[in-house]
Amino acid sequence: MSREIIRTDQAPQAIGTYSQAVKVGTTVYLSGQIALDPQTMSMIEGDTEAEIRRVFDNLQAVARAAGGSLGDMVKLNVFLVDLANFALVNQIMAEYFDQPYPARAALGVASLPRNASVEMDGVLELER
């Protein structure tokens, strides 16, 4: 099966050796997103809530570029520098997703690129 590289200027460009997303058949693998502004490629200003919202916005932009939406997400991975923000992720996630929610993992990590407090990646399954 062939791979299609997904790119959009509505989400941050890759800051390393990876693609924003890769589509294989009807499955789309979204790379990790942090709270980078797509236009400036700088971390957004604001608190952890603002970072979480920017991350979801970035994931949404890549999902759309792949022909889907966050509603097509079947797996979401959340990486938090401070697991005390877990409840905040849940609260904001409920604004971006409808039930049934995707499968999810939340992991506490020591650090993230650009001193981000949150990073997320995921997998979409698109209809044929």
Spans with pLDDT under 50 lasting ≥5 residues?
Answer: none
Q: For the report, how would you describe the main beta sheet?
A: 6 strands, mixed
Q: What would you report as the Rg, rounded to the nearest angstrom?
A: 14 Å
Order of helices and strands: EEEHEHEE
Which superfamily, in CATH terms, is the homologous superfamily? RutC-like
How many angstroms separate the termini?
15 Å
Main structural class:
alpha+beta
When the domains are counted, the total is 1
Mean pLDDT: 97
Strand tally is 6
By CATH reckoning, the class would read Alpha Beta
CATH architecture annotation name: 2-Layer Sandwich
- Give the strand order of the largest sheet, numbering strands 1, 2, ... along the chain: 1-2-3-6-4-5
Overall outline: globular
What fraction of residues sit in β-strands? 25-35%
Number of helices: 2
Share in helix: 10-25%
Give your account of this protein's structure.
The protein is of the alpha+beta class and 128 residues long. The protein has one domain (3-125): 60s Ribosomal Protein L30, Chain: A. The chain has two helices and six strands. Strands 1-2-3-6-4-5 form a six-stranded mixed β-sheet, covered by helices on one side. Helix 1 packs parallel to helix 2 (86-96). The longest helix is centred in the middle third of the chain and has 18 residues, at 48-65. The chain is globular.
